Amino acid sequence: MLKRTALVAVLATPMTAQAGGLEITVAGQANGTISIDLFEDIAPLHAAQITALAADGTYDGVVFHRVIEGFMAQTGDVQFGDSTDAAFNMNRAGTGGSDLPDIALEATNEKSFTRGMVGMARSQNPNSANSQFFIMFEDGPFLDGQYTIVGEVAEGMDVVDAIKRGDGPNGAVIGDADYMASVTVIE
């Protein structure tokens, strides 16, 4: 996994208001590419953290472990959600994070959780976002101010819409889950 020194280097790099992004190749039931524009201007710490994890290849192979129809698709558990890891157990996916520190909420009034927005997942503590993120299927303004909005899908909502839905408790995906085959940082 990515070490803290790599994140320090990312955070030391000057950020501009013009956001970079991620290109996610999805495999499984859904196949295709999702391009995400990151909001480095309103969520600089979260954007830097997920960019660092993507640049290190840490997201490659990670499953969409929680997918709720009409709500969102969640992924990014690099600790327990890597389907290429020999110790992978779908029952543990979604319970971990990364070796990097948790990040405090970066709330904004500039954006709202609408279809295609990307938010950072967290525990009950609003300052516990780490590596997991979710993509909205539909508007969810009830999340505004509670979760960091880190980006927005620029292309590939058809791929997002095709991600296998969860049938288990709280949207847990049962059986073979769709996964991020590769996640690349784009300018």
Describe what you observe in this structure.
The protein is of the alpha+beta class and 187 residues long. Helix content is 14%, strand content 25%. It has three helices and nine strands. Strands 3-9-1-2-8-6-7-5-4 form a nine-stranded antiparallel beta sheet. The longest helix has 12 residues. The N terminus is likely disordered.
Summary tags:
9-stranded antiparallel beta sheet; disordered N terminus; 187 residues; globular; alpha+beta
Summed up:
The chain is α+β, with helices and mostly antiparallel strands and 187 residues long. Helix content is 14%, strand content 25%. The protein has helices at residues 4-12, 44-55, 157-162, and strands at 21-27, 32-38, 62-63, 66-68, 72-75, 117-120, 133-136, 149-155, 179-186.
Largest sheet: 9 strands, antiparallel
Give the termini separation: 23 Å
Q: How many helices?
A: 3
Q: Strand fraction band?
A: 15-25%
- The backbone outline, from C-alpha atoms, is globular
Rg over CA atoms, rounded to whole Å, is 15 Å
Low confidence ranges:
1-19
Number of strands: 9
Estimate the mean pLDDT confidence.
Answer: 91
